[in-house]
Amino acid sequence: MAERKPIISGNWKMNLNHFEAIQLVQKLSYALTKDDVEAVDVSIHPPFTDLRSVQTVLEADKIPIALGAQNCHWESSGAFTGEIAPVMLAKLNVSLVIAGHSERRQLFGETNQDVNRKIKAILNAEMTPIMACGETLEQREAGEMEEHIVTQITEGLSGIKSEHVADMVIAYEPIWAIGTGATATPEDAQEVCALVRATVGNLYTSGTADKVRIQYGGSVKPGTAPELMSQPDIDGALIGGAALSSEDFAHCIQYRLR
Ligand code: PEP
């Protein structure tokens, strides 16, 4: 079985101006040790307006945290008012971009086809996509979770080469657990992350499935991170609320010490 290095990502959503962003990054860098960042890949995903400031701090202070973005468009330039191209993010040394977060899907109507175009564009710009998937409570209760997840993965990855899939990150985020305080049980999260991996295995090869890193997301907190991270198919976490506190985010990253 492949050794998969854990990856923990902080999704700041539409929070923090660039001054606040700099403060949070500096606090986070004090809270993390060399061992922490050697054991776990860490990324932060500030709003677009903060990226340049955060990049400058990360690079000037040599902070080993990857810079991420929350979204992008699939075109590389043109008449798309209000949108940001992947190449613009790459120029800021952004290395990971979330595609298909449930808030983008639910509030802004993103489809699996849009997510697929974004993933291809992110890869073309030589960045790593974090493709998010997850079911609503209604879908779970109606017994439609499995079909929904398999469709999101299948359509989201359509036409993407095996070697790219092996290197990307997939985040399983049950919508009912995002920002609600209702974390999935480690067993439930493991079950769906195993389904995500099996789906990748069916679409590609078991080697690809073995390499792809799968995050769980949905109200992860310092208290719940250790048990979630101990599940065999959970290789990381995508964290919203708790990533806005340097202390809580650092404690999630330090899950192995807790
Ligand atoms: C998220 O933003 O992807 C997320 C999981 O948020 P929270 O941790 O606040 O539930």
Structural write-up:
The chain is α/β, with parallel strands linked by helices and 258 residues long. The protein has a single domain (7-257), classed as Aldolase class I (TIM Barrel, Alpha-Beta Barrel), CATH 3.20.20. The chain has helices spanning 18-31, 34-39, 51-60, 86-91, 102-108, 112-124, 137-141, 145-156, 162-167, 186-203, 206-211, 225-229, 246-253; strands at 7-11, 41-45, 66-69, 96-99, 128-133, 169-172, 213-217, 236-239. The chain is globular and about 45 Å long. The mean pLDDT is 97. It binds phosphoenolpyruvate. The site of phosphoenolpyruvate (PEP) has 14 residues, from strand 8.
Q: By CATH's scheme, which homologous superfamily applies?
A: Aldolase class I
Low-confidence runs of at least 5 consecutive residues: none
CATH fold-level name: TIM Barrel
Number of domains: 1
